[in-house]
Amino acid sequence: MAYLNVDEIEVAIETLARAHPNVTELIPLPNVTSEGRHSHALRIGPPDAPGLDAVVITGGLHAREWVPPDALVNLAADLLEAHAGGTGLRYGGQRFSADDIRSVVGGMQLVLFPCVNPDGRHHSQSSSDAM
Amino acid sequence: MADGDVHRIKLRAQTLEELRAFLDGSGFDLGCRPVVHREGNEFVVEVYAPLPEVDRLRSARSVSGVDVTVVENASEVGRNRQAEVGSGNRFAARQALRGLGIKE
Questions:
Q1: Residue B69 to chain A, least CA–CA distance (Å)
Q2: Facing residue for A88 by CB, picked from B79, B87, B104
Q3: Are A9 and A40 in contact, with CB atoms under 8 Å apart?
Q4: What pLDDT, on a 0 to 100 scale, did the predictor assign at position B63?
Q5: Chosen from A3, A4, A8 to mutate, greatest number of chain B CBs within 10 A
Q6: For the whole model, what pTM was predicted?
């Protein structure tokens, strides 16, 4: 699959939030970027559960490092689909049981902010002088 | 290849002091997490810089014992990767992305 562009990252997490409303919250960042882009983070976890530990994972700070935003979007999609289907997850030889998935989605607040620097990513992915 | 193309370059020396002396004040990009690692008996660090800058530094400094190996043209790699970036918006139909993990 080709690298995600910045528009696709935004729509991908919006769509995941809409598909899994019981365990997600789409969090709009308070400010637009210098090029006017809106950014969102995705919280995965039970609603109204104060006191749970929170883990925040960011990606895409360095514009030329294209894989972490894609990896975080895919992680969100995998966790949510596995949780909804009551399955585990396997990546190559690494397996996570359905209980592992439940413990993540139901036992913490996982905040994924896939692309914290969309302006830089867009420039590096599209500009001929970015490289 | 353009003169300004940034290359990934391995610098190799017998001692850390030789590497430091070569790099001191060079302004080379050492990547996000500069790490010197051992390869056999040598110390190796990767830098990113245009080739003319490396050549200029090499000829301007009297440091001996630093071996310079060009690994790849990082700019060219980047330009090739740009062709792999998705165009348009593959999720415009609001169909949820499926991750790469196997659900089982």
A1: 20
A2: B104
A3: no
A4: 59
A5: A8
A6: 0.85
